[in-house]
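On clarity, I found the account of how folds are encoded harder to follow than it need be. Since the whole study asks how a given chain folds, the encoding of that fold should be made plain. For illustration, here is how one protein appears when written out as sequence plus structure tokens:

:::
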Amino acid sequence: MLKPGIAAAAAGAVGLALFAAATLSRTAASEEKPRVIPAPAADSAPATARKEVAVLAGGCFWGVQGVYQHVKGVTNAVSGYAGGEKDTAQYERVGSGRTGHAESVEVTFDPRVVSYGRLLQIFFSVAHDPTQLNRQGPDSGTQYRSAIFPTTPEQARVAQAYIAQLDQAHAFESPIVTKIEPGRTFYPAEDYHQDFLVQNPTYPYIVINDLPKVESLKRLFPDAFRGTPVLVRAR
């Protein structure tokens, strides 16, 4: 993933076109393809609470955040880092791949509207490819790994059961490599990463890699799709 400043540096239309072509070429061999998968057989118990938090990592956080901002029942989706320590939760340091962090999204949701299992179904189906080890699309490194950071023992149970269910059903051509990493703290990313998909819909990386995920959400999960995204900066 390239930082926003790089797009400005390549300001001319020719520069952006070349960047888009290069990105498309790198993405073609490892395209993240949406697919229909079964819902979790074991989901969370019916909720009475109005608020729950999920933390998910599936490659560049721009696209993952953009997907969940369009999911009904989600009240906030924040890009950030999880898996490492607080003092290394900075974009430049995380990009080294040596901090233990993964680019992640903290999803706050109303479990009476959308269940944790449903969020995982969207995560595995359209938000990323859970069979790619330490990479997504054109991005590679442990900071782009597929990971679930459960915030409760119940979430860990649901996630473990669902991965086993999908692998047993051969929902994907290859085994799921998503790691479940409990007990990790989420740290919000820098302000310029928040709402990046919504704020930069013509940025080539977003056009090629992330807008198709939002379209796939709309197509495969029409009952869960919300046309107007919930934004961090609106708060």
